Amino acid sequence: MNLNATLIAQLVVFFILVAFTMKFVWPPIVKALDERAQKVADGLAAADKAKADLALAEKKVVEEMRKARESATDVRASAEKQASELIDEARAEASRIIAAAREAAEGEAAAAAERAKEALREQVASLAVAGAEKILRKEVDAKAHADLLANLKQEL
């Protein structure tokens, strides 16, 4: 076999193989590589976006925690204020109840003293009549003496 013919035949087969590869094999490989590069780029963009979203979420969490602390402080202050108001109201109500009870007791004591004075007047009047009856040792006119005793009660 001739070396030149073999070399030419090999060159023709090589160029046919290169042309076939460039027309049918190379485009799907390039397409697969481009798709893979696009997926990698999309993944990197998604990772960057996720980092930005995470940073934003962390800022929001910090802000919400601050607001929650402020709200808790406000609620606590409001509760303490309401508790002190309730205590003050309870003290005022207790003072009113004590004053009313004191007034009722004083009124009852005054009424009891008045009743005791009235009973004492009646006893003094009856003792005076009994004493006068014994002194005079005579019959006492009950009607005349009742008027006398009534006057005596008024004077006592």
Please characterize this protein's 3D structure:
It is a single chain. The protein is mainly α and 156 residues long. The chain has one domain (3-155). 95% of the residues lie in helices and 0% in strands. The protein has helices at 3-136, 142-155. α1 (3-136) packs across α2 (142-155). The N and C termini lie far apart (171 Å).
Report the C-alpha radius of gyration, rounded.
60 Å
Low-confidence stretches: none
The dominant shape is rod-shaped
What's the N-to-C terminus distance?
171 Å
Order of helices and strands: HH
Q: How many beta strands in the DSSP annotation?
A: 0
How many domains? The number is 1
User: How many strands, what sense, and barrel or not for the largest sheet?
Assistant: none
Q: Fraction of residues in helices?
A: over 70%
**Tally of helical runs:** 2
Alpha-beta classification:
mainly alpha
As a percent range, the share of strand residues is under 5%
Overall mean pLDDT stands at 87
Q: What is the strand and helix layout of this fold?
A:
Blueprint: H1 3-136, H2 142-155
Membrane topology: Single-pass membrane protein
Family: Belongs to the ATPase B chain family.
Subcellular location: Cell membrane; Endomembrane system
Features:
156 residues, 0% strand, mainly alpha
